[in-house]
Amino acid sequence: MKRLTTALCAGLFLAGYAFAAQADEDADTARSLIDAAQKSPLAFDLVESLTTEVGPRLAGSAAEKRARDWAVKKLNGLGFANVHVEDFEMEGWRRGTISLLVGDPYPQRLVATALGGSIGTPVGGITASVVRFDTLAALKAAPADSLTGKIAFVDEVMTRTQEGRGYGVAVQKRAAGPSIAAKKGALALLIRSAGTDYHRNAHTGGLHYADDAPRIPAAALSNNDADQLARLLALKADVSLSLTMSSKALGKVASGNVVAEVTGSEYPDEVVLLGAHLDSWDEGTGAIDDGTGVAIVTAAAKLIIDQGAPKRTIRVVLFGSEEPGLIGAKAYVAAHKDTLSQIIMVSESDFGSGRIWRMDTGIAREDEAKADAILQVLRPLAVLPGKRTAGGGSDVSALSAAGVPAVSMVQNGWDYFDLHHTPDDTLDKIDPDDLAQNVAVYAAFALMVANTQGGFHAPKKPAAGH
Length: 466
Prior knowledge:
Helix content: 25-40%
CATH class of the largest domain: Alpha Beta
Distance between the termini: 48 Å
CATH superfamily of the largest domain: Zn peptidases
Number of strands: 16
Strand content: 15-25%
Radius of gyration: 25 Å
CATH topology of the largest domain: Aminopeptidase
Structural class: alpha/beta
């Protein structure tokens, strides 16, 4: 019995030693990836190619199809396996043109852009007086039919934060505002842009029409022009505006997700999924939203290809049609619903190229020590431990909601909403060094997750009633 106990203890010691040695080896490999990432121009080259050769990539458009073709060619050329497109359909939309004019006694043009998915105005446009609301809540509180025959204007200001948390509040006027205004009788809705800049660029973005409200045209004013309209209304309560928009729904159109893999050497059916979205709004060239994300996850996975096969498969998914409402993400979940349990981690890059400064985790408590080990490798990149809750990012939040473990790499987004959804979203706004730091973080993180013994698991859901 004594000899058996001694042998058992020795076996456990050797197993623990082997586990620690493997973890040290993975950490060393991750550090070598960090060094390589900070010297590699690949990510910048990719986003330059995408934004130059394809440009804006409106969901469901011919340009988005060119982007898928571009991605397939690039991914194959970089040595990825299983490169393919997973097709789906969506409701197409065309922006058209817009004109917004102030009537007498202060005639002038205001800068505005149609909100994504908005209907156009009737032929000849809409001319009506405008009613201003400080907040969306004030619009909600307006009496029924109080806006009959008028244009509603929600002038709610967005708060600038490092994490972009002000957007979650500001975007509500864009998403829900049109139907709320329509229920009050409004002919159209104008909003102050969901953005933080003063570049006289309006910020576009998707809206959501409620089924129980009329559909009315909706547009965003630049922040400068929202201020101008507020000043005009202070001078004259019944300012008249003439709005003409030729936006149009196109019916069913094709879109798709582009998928590529780095095949795992030991557990190829277990997957670490890195996401970004390939589509963009059509005002800029989609450099920071989300060309940088496409470049970051692709370049990170390519570094791992060059290093050698990870133990688990690393899957890059470049989602289509994120901007109109995570349509590609929902299609991906539906198509892969029977194999979601094989995904041991998801994370998405979709917040520009600002430096990653925090790692949030949405994993089981018993796996937190494994995540902490990854953080130790990332600390020289100035990545701090974050919250113990995470959805992983925009598209992959659909996967984490379905029970997949997630990590959110939190970037510095202090100026992200100066550029987001505007004509200013162009290549020159990207700092190559910041972009390389993102690639380094994702490469080290993905490699270590792919090689971690036992993998990762989703946090346990609280019992009903708790």
